[in-house]
Design brief:
By secondary structure, this protein is α/β, with parallel strands linked by helices. It is built from 14 helices and ten strands. It is 45% helix and 12% strand. The strands form two sheets. The chain has an eight-stranded parallel beta barrel with strand order 1-2-3-4-6-8-9-10, surrounded by six helices. The chain has a two-stranded antiparallel ribbon with strand order 5-7. Helix 2 crosses helix 9 and helix 10 runs antiparallel to helix 11. The structure holds 6-deoxy-beta-L-fructofuranose and manganese (II) ion. 6-deoxy-beta-L-fructofuranose (LRH) binds next to loops.
Length: 388
């Protein structure tokens, strides 16, 4: 039988990291639809993130992206966050928007370009020292578009060399999280295309190097929960970039396109001990709200993760293990589906009340009047975006 007080405790101590860039304008190559009230700087992004935490109680960490969140005084930005009950989370490097990186950043054939890219990665570690961040999240758009364009193995040598240099720079309590992605913007090879490539590099680097699973970065039909179970077993799952997709890297609200997949992923997280803080799994969102209101979309996303987590925590582990060892296929599947088909919204509403929060975060946000406040208050200035 599932211990409900343990389930409630786990839901109260859940921590979801929201991405600063999701509060800014974003779009596709076709169009970026600007929205009223969008933040103009990292301070205003934190102000919006504080609204998500105020409404949900489980989103006190904000990931930053450099240079989109570059400021003169990171200690002041950190203080601004802490005054609002927030901490600064993963520092995301960006070696995918500079003209010099057309043929690659750390894998570029030109050693001068590689040095420039490595310089940026090391700058990001300096920023982590100032923001108190544990994680450096590395995603490389590096790849090729045509067979023969470059030497696949030589690019891996260059990548490994840069990763080793970054690893050596990390402090004792710092980690590097290596993100993989099947394709885009490269369309023939991507230098870190899948979990195996990231895992292999992280194994060679050492314990401070872990794999990030961005749920939008796999080939269609990939069993992501298998990857999660495998990496947890190997103590190499550093975190998630949660979002959802119908086709490619759509960056839609997590759980929106495939809530059953998110449940299956959280089931493996719970089973593998990934919810325990000491396991060190970072639950980050990485989304773009191209047409929908951004703060409510992020609140909805946090609620989707909470619902999938609550369902996973309600799996009767004893009954499941018994059915699995008995080879009772239908019963084992039924035990899991019972949890998935459980309406956990009343449970989460009462957990929020126990946290002193409104049972419905969306209603709480609407009642806050924050959306009107920023729509009328944030006039003029340069709205934040990807700057591409
Ligand atoms: C790449 C990615 C990466 C971020 C970017 C915002 O697609 O998932 O995690 O740097 O989105
Ligand atoms: Mn990502």
């Amino acid at each position: 039988m599932t211990d409900l007080s343990a389930v409630r405790a786990a839901l109260k101590s859940q921590r979801i990291e929201t991405p600063s860039w999701a509060y800014g304008n974003s779009g596709t190559r076709f169009k970026v639809f600007r929205q009223e009230g969008v933040p103009r700087d990292p301070y205003e992004k934190l102000d919006d993130a504080a609204q998500v935490h105020a409404a949900t109680g489980v989103a006190p960490v904000v990931a930053l992206h450099i240079p989109w969140d570059r400021v003169d005084d990171y200690a002041a930005l950190r203080a601004h966050a802490e005054e609002r009950g927030l901490t600064l989370g993963a520092i995301n490097s960006n070696v995918f928007q500079d003209d010099d990186y057309k043929l690659g950043s750390v894998t570029n054939p030109d050693p001068a370009v590689r040095r420039k890219a490595l310089g940026h990665l090391l700058d990001c570690v300096d920023i982590m020292d100032a923001t108190g961040s544990r994680d450096l999240k590395l995603w490389f758009s590096d790849g090729t578009n045509y067979p023969g364009q470059d030497d696949i193995a030589a690019r891996q040598d260059r990548l490994a060399e840069a990763l080793e240099a970054v690893y050596r720079r990390l402090g004792d309590d710092q980690r590097m999280l290596l993100e993989y992605k099947l394709f885009e913007p490269a369309f023939y090879t991507t230098d870190v295309p899948d979990w195996g490539t990231s895992y292999a590099h992280c194994l060679k680097l050492g314990p401070k190097a872990q794999v990030v699973v961005d749920t939008g970065h796999h080939a269609p039909g990939t069993n992501i929960e298998f990857i999660v179970a495998f990496l947890l077993r190997e103590a190499k799952l550093g975190g998630f970039d949660f979002n959802s997709r119908f086709y490619a890297d759509d960056d839609l609200m997590v759980g929106a396109a495939d809530p059953f997949q998110l449940f299956r992923i959280m089931h493996e997280v719970v089973r593998g001990g990934g919810l325990r803080p000491e396991t060190g799994v970072a639950f980050m969102l990485d989304q773009c709200h191209n047409i929908e209101a951004k703060i409510p979309a992020i609140i909805r996303s946090v609620m989707n993760v909470q619902e999938a987590t609550a369902k996973a925590l309600l799996v009767d582990a004893g009954a499941l293990a018994a059915a699995q060892s008995a080879g009772d296929v239908l019963e084992a599947n039924a035990v899991l589906m019972d949890a998935y088909n459980t309406d956990v919204r009343p449970l989460l509403a009462s957990v929020r009340e126990e946290l002193g929060l409104h049972p419905d975060p969306m209603a709480a946000y609407r009642a806050s009047g924050w959306q009107q406040q920023i729509t009328t208050g944030r006039v003029g200035g340069e709205q934040a975006g990807w700057g591409a």
